């Protein structure tokens, strides 16, 4: 009699995953799903950076591991072109006109199509209320800890 071994699914390009993950930089967690419902994503569709997706390839369902990525490896270096001034008038239209912005605040902006959001970090506030934001990824240019638990692989 031959025993059949059920093979454990392994993450491959194109796999659909259910997972918990945590992305942290030197200042702490930026994303952490371990305390909430797990995330679902498809490998190779750009939902995670290529460097993070590469770390997932080959992991078996049920794996829990942590990767340390060097500064700039996960989300590139900070891009000076991503630093932009936003006029007080536009900030008032997009949010609360009474909002006080302070250095280091992370502010969510709607995408032009209104379907999503992106974040900017406050770098400077001018006397006229204009604010200079850095729209680089919050973890760009810093070392990143990527902790992952693969719950399901399809």
Description of the structure:
The mean pLDDT is 92. The chain has helices at residues 50-56, 88-94; strands at residues 16-25, 28-32, 39-42, 64-69, 83-86, 106-110, 117-125, 131-134, 144-153. The protein is mainly β and 154 residues long. Strands 1, 2, 3, 4 and 9 form a 5-stranded antiparallel beta sheet that branches. The chain has a 4-stranded antiparallel beta sheet with strand order 5-8-7-6. The two termini are 30 Å apart. Strand 7 (117-125) and strand 8 (131-134) form a beta hairpin. The relative contact order is 0.29. The chain has 2 helices and 9 strands.
SSE inventory with pairings:
Layout: E1 16-25, E2 28-32, E3 39-42, H1 50-56, E4 64-69, E5 83-86, H2 88-94, E6 106-110, E7 117-125, E8 131-134, E9 144-153
Antiparallel strand pairs: 1-2, 1-3, 1-9, 4-9, 5-8, 6-7, 7-8
What keywords describe this structure?
mainly beta, elongated, 4-stranded antiparallel beta sheet, 154 residues, single chain
3D shape: elongated
The count of DSSP E runs of length 2 or more, i.e. the number of strands, is 9
H and E order:
EEEHEEHEEEE
Number of helices: 2
C-alpha Rg, in Å?
A: 19 Å
Percentage of residues in strands: 35-45%
How would you state the average pLDDT, rounded?
92
Low-confidence stretches: none
Largest pleated sheet: 5 strands, antiparallel
Structural class of the secondary elements?
mainly beta
Distance between the termini: 30 Å
């Amino acid at each position: 009699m031959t025993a059949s071994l059920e093979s454990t699914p392994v993450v491959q390009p194109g796999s659909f995953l259910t997972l918990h993950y945590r992305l942290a930089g030197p200042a702490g967690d930026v994303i952490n799903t371990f305390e909430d419902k797990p995330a679902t994503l498809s490998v190779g569709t750009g939902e995670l950076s290529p460097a993070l997706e590469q770390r997932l390839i080959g992991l078996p369902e049920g794996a829990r591991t942590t990767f340390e990525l060097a500064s700039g490896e996960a989300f590139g270096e900070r891009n000076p072109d991503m630093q932009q001034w936003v006029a007080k008038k536009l900030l008032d239209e997009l949010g609360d006109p009474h909002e006080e912005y302070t250095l280091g605040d992370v502010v969510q902006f709607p995408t032009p199509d209104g379907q999503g959001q992106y974040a900017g970090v406050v770098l400077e506030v001018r006397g006229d209320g204009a604010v200079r934001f850095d729209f680089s990824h919050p973890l760009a240019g810093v070392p990143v800890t990527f902790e992952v638990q693969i719950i399901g692989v399809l």
